[in-house]
Amino acid sequence: MQRLDMKQLLSQKLSPQQIQFIKLLQIPTAELEARIKEELEVNPALEEGDENTDDEVEDQERDDEADDSDDFDDPDSEFDSDDNTLDEDFDQGSEEQPEIEIPTKEDDPVDNTKDNEELDLGDYLNDDEIAGYKMQGDGPGEPEDDREMPLADTGASLTDALLDQLGFADLDEKQEAIGRQLIGSIDNDGYIRRDLSAIANDLAFSQNIEADEAEIEGVLHLIQSFDPAGIAARDLQECLLLQLERRHQDELTEHAERILSETFDEFTKKHYQRIQQKLDLEDDELKEAIALILKLNPKPGGTGPVGMGKVQYIIPDFILTNDNGVFNLTLNARNAPDLRVAPAYTEMFQTYDKAAKKDKKMKEAVTFVKQKLDSARWFIDAIKQRQQTLLKTMDSIVRYQHDFFLEGDESKLRPMILKDIATEIGMDISTVSRVANSKSVQTEFGIYPLKYFFSEGIATDSGEDASSREVKHILKEIIEGESKNRPLSDDKLEKMLNARGYNIARRTVAKYREQLNIPVARLRKEL
Fold first, then answer.
1. pLDDT tens-digit profile of 163-189?
2. Is 467 exposed, middle or buried (0-12, 13-18, 19+ CB in 10 A)?
3. For labelling alongside 223, which of 53, 103, 263, 337 has CA 20 to 30 A away?
């Protein structure tokens, strides 16, 4: 049985302008440059330049035109036809630039049959019937957040370098195909972590090459002799042994190889006494062998003659300078571009608006031009709003962490969460989060991500809250000053911090130690 129900719902949706502002707010300076270039390419009504400068030029040209009109007054210069009037409007448009403004009235344009036959604006219109609604980055297609940021090419990859070395090897066609498959299986760290049986299946299914594991392992040993040393290893133990094989085979190298091949588990756990007893090594011999192993490269893929990755440079979004205790905060010059609406498109819209005759072609042209003008205006407004929000948020952070920015001392950081800044500037927490998520500031003490200044509070004996950054800084200092023969456990670190007035539990000490990438006491032990 069918039923017909009526419901009244109240929903709230973001406007296209708000969506565009949110997308622009969360991207850093490097991506903003690419985003602006992309918008300039797809929207001809948007161009680089200063609107104020353009207004001054327009005023000067109006004065010159007024002087010329006083000197020349010919009644026969009136045009009789509407076609000639429209042509004259376009001719004047090439000589003067009218004010940059978007008329609110939308009239049907002039019927110019000659121009309609020569120019078909329908080819340039998209499927959107609402003028200015769609913007670049909205609607179907690849999401902006998933788009890879373009980076400068830093040279050939490690794969290319290995393929070049493979080309110089004396191999038949089948062995060369196996070698290419193995090189393609090397990960970013320089290891082949897949089983040889899986690689044999790939060769059979993708290239129709039948090869057993013995054949593949033979080619693998050849690739392991390529540069950099230790490449194409299947685990860390094999990687380190491959590097030792290229050293001069003396007593020290022999001891290091025995440690890795016979007592690798004890070595990873730093059970040096067991190693010494099992291999019957003297204290000096063990110490020198361990020192040699620690100099080896555990990730040959990242630091070979040609790295696999690309170098990314941090571009700060803010620049903070200290002028005798007075802070000057500015946006990065790349973050504040000068954009304006193209005068030619504004003039074109005004010309269509003043025209007398109307037809379908002209109406489509007006729709197209108005759409581009609205989109350009919205984009410029979103950029300006982004700049204001960034400066407002960063200015609040500077005031909140004033003592830190004066001296650069981590112990001066105050506990600060997103809600503190959001309350002070009168914005939502999500807005502050978008600003702090991927932005950085250049100070006299280095470049810091904005997330660095946000931290939770830890209760102290004095009754005041201390920043977790401050506690981590003190914890790092204690560990750096400990005896490497007898490193401090988490329990001892907890007692030392409590003695300094920080009420902190052992599990919190372990949490902060892991966040600082500091291993447990057993793994910090040195000979």
1. 888 888 888 888 888 888 888 888 888
2. buried
3. 263
